[in-house]
Design goal:
Elements lengths: L1 H23 L9 H22 L4 H5 L6 H25 L6 H4 L1 H6 L2 H31 L2 H14 L4 H21 L3 H27 L4 H11 L2 H30 L3 H6 L11 E2 L2 E2 L1
Antiparallel strand pairs: 1-2
Helix pairs in contact: 1-2, 2-7, 4-9, 4-10, 4-12, 7-8, 7-10, 8-9, 9-10, 9-12
């Protein structure tokens, strides 16, 4: 447990230090493209996990959970991602009652340079590096030394804090819980990497379209969004509606998690997640439960 905590603290300090460094450099006339500094920051989160794992003499592939998953599991994972959107949106909207939308504030920076480079950072680098560090390292190790629920909640909190702002922290915690349970159900880190990349892809597209629409109207996207957030009273109502939808979706999320566990012949996950009342009566054969 101590090794996990110390490694995470190193991740957090590295991320914070790099963030402050890249905020400081423009004031000195040094401008680094988002594609470059974003990639560096993601690697900074990942490296401590790799170093610790290598120091322990463990296989990176096995330790981080890089196990092949079936095509059916990939499809189920996409479905689980779509079901996860209302809880994600709910946490995002409710947090904006108190704080600005951090992603929107960074939109112009992401879209002003190379779109391919920005897409690479947001969709590929962030998904792979953060999932290896937070799920492959933190969650996988935590669930070996504590209860599954405890490991899930702690790793989700770690995932939220690593974003260094309240807005992203709120929805990252929610997604972190679902990502961890998805990985436990499949026994593979590929599930959360897929989910993370899809959600970031959708977010990137929304920011790109919003920035383009604002520019066409002669507006600053971040300023317009913040003005609407402060003056509009619909945030709470929207958040509560999304909360209701999220509650309705919970049984569906649970059902898809069960199907992922069945698809991957993972009766341990069925038992630990409490997704089946009579797990011991299930017969697994080629990814189907009889």
């Amino acid at each position: 447990m101590i090794g996990i905590i110390v490694t995470y603290i190193v991740m957090l300090i590295t991320n914070f230090a790099l963030s402050k460094l890249f905020d400081f450099l423009p004031g000195k006339g040094i401008y680094i493209p988002f594609a470059i500094y974003g990639t560096v920051m993601e690697i900074g989160i990942l490296l401590p996990a790799i170093i610790y794992t290598k120091m322990k003499g463990e296989s990176l592939i096995d330790s981080f959970g890089f196990r092949k998953i079936r095509p059916k599991t990939v499809l189920l994972t996409v479905g689980l991602t779509l079901l996860s959107l209302p809880p994600f949106w709910c946490a995002n909207v409710l947090s904006q009652i108190f704080v600005p939308n951090t992603a929107v504030e960074s939109a112009s920076e992401m879209t002003s340079g190379s779109l391919f480079g920005s897409f690479f950072v947001v969709v590929i680098a962030a998904s792979i590096c953060e999932e290896i560090a937070l799920r492959g390292f933190c969650f996988n190790r935590l669930k070996k030394v504590t209860y599954l629920l405890t490991a899930t909640c702690i790793s989700a909190l770690m995932f939220g804090i690593i974003h260094l702002n309240i807005n992203q922290m709120c929805y990252a915690i929610v997604l972190g819980i679902i990502f961890a349970l998805a990985n436990h159900a499949s026994g593979s880190i590929w599930t959360s990497i897929i989910m993370h990349s899809i959600i970031n892809s959708l977010g990137f597209i929304v920011l790109l379209l919003g920035e383009k629409a604002a520019n066409s109207a002669g507006l600053d996207f971040a300023e317009a969004t913040e003005l609407e957030r402060v003056q509009d009273n619909t945030m709470l109502i929207t958040g509560l509606v999304l909360l209701a939808v999220s509650i309705i979706f919970l049984p569906l999320i649970k059902r898809v998690l069960r199907k992922i566990a069945v698809s991957e012949n993972n009766p341990e996950a069925m038992t630990n997640l409490g997704l089946c009342k009579e797990t011991n009566k299930l017969e697994f054969d080629g990814g189907t439960a009889k």
